[in-house]
Predict the structure.
Amino acid sequence: MDTSNIYHVIGLMSGTSGDGLDMAHCRFVYDQKWSFNIIEATTAEFPEDLGKRLGQAHLLSGEQLCLLDREFGTWMGEKVNEFCKTYQLGPDAVASHGHTVFHQPQKRLTTQIGCGWSLMQACGLPVINDFRTKDVLLGGQGAPLAPVGDHFLFEEYDFCLNLGGISNISMISNGQRKAFDTSPFNLLLNHFAAKRGFPYDDQGKLAKSGKVVHSLLDQLNTLPYYTHTGAKSLGREDIENSFLPLLESENNAEEDILATLVRHYAEQISKVVLSHTSKPTSKLLITGGGAYNSFFIDELSEKLGNKVLAIVPDKEIIDFKEALIFAFLGVLKLRKEANSFSSVTGASRNSCGGTLYEPNLIS
C-alpha cells in the first residue's frame, strides 16, 4: 500500500460542555475508501482555574481573552507532549478544534480559542486549528463539521447523532450530506444539575425523578430556532438569550426542568429523524457524553418506535468520536481536500478550512 495514504494525527476536542480536553491518536488509511483506528485516547481534565475561565471566556475583556487564548494553547500543547511521551507516539500533526467562545455566523463571527502558535511551540509538532472561520466567511454556519467525518468514516449508519453541549445530527438527504444542530443538550442539563450540587445528571437519574412541565414543554417546542429550515447552528449565545430565560422564568424544581428538557430533546430529535427516514428500519449512531444518559436514550427510543434502531457504540467511540473526526479534518487539510460541506453549512461552496502551523517555519 502507498504509505503516502497513511496518516497518524492527534485530534483535540474541547467541547462546549467544558468537561476537559479529549485527545485521540488516530491512524487513517485511504485505499479506495477511508478506514481508521483509534490507537490511544485520553481526556485531560482542566485545572480548576483554567476550566472556570474557559466557562466564562465570553465575559472576559479583550485583553483577558487574548491572554487566555495563549495560555490555553500552551496548556494543550503541554498535554499533547505528555500524551506522546507516555505512549511513545510520533504523529504527523495535531488537529485542534479549540474552545468555542463566540459563534454568531449571521455576523460572520466564530471564535475558538487555543492559540495555534502556542500549541505548536509547546508540543513541537505541526498544528492545524481554526477549522470554522473560512466556512463562516463563505456565508456558512461554520458548523457542524463532524458530518464530513460521518460521511467518510461512519457511512454504514443512516444517522449520526452527537450529544455534547449541543446536540447535532448528520444524514444523507436527497443524495447530499445534511446536518444541523438539533437542540441544546448538556449545556442545559449540566446547568440545572449543578443547581442540585452535581456536575451532571448521572444516567438521567435527576430527570427521571422529576415530572414534565407541559406548559414549559410547549414553550420550548415553539422557540423560533425550531421553525428554521436548512443550515442552522446553535451557540452559547442562543442558550443564554432564548432558552435559559424561559427555563428560569418560573419557580420549577430542577428535577422537573430536567425531565422537561429530556422530553423536549427526545421530541425534537425524533421529529427530525422520522421525517428523514424512508427505510423500513434505519440505524442511528449515538455518541457524545449524552449517550450515557440512559433515561434520555429510553425516551428517544420510545419516540422513534420500531422504525429506527438507536445504537450506542463502545465507550471509545462514544467518548472520542469528535476528537477522531477533527483528526480526520486535519488529514483532509494536509491533503488539501474539502473538509467542510456547503450542503451542511449553507456556505457558497465546499472548502478546505483550517490554519497550519509548522515548527520548521520558526527560525
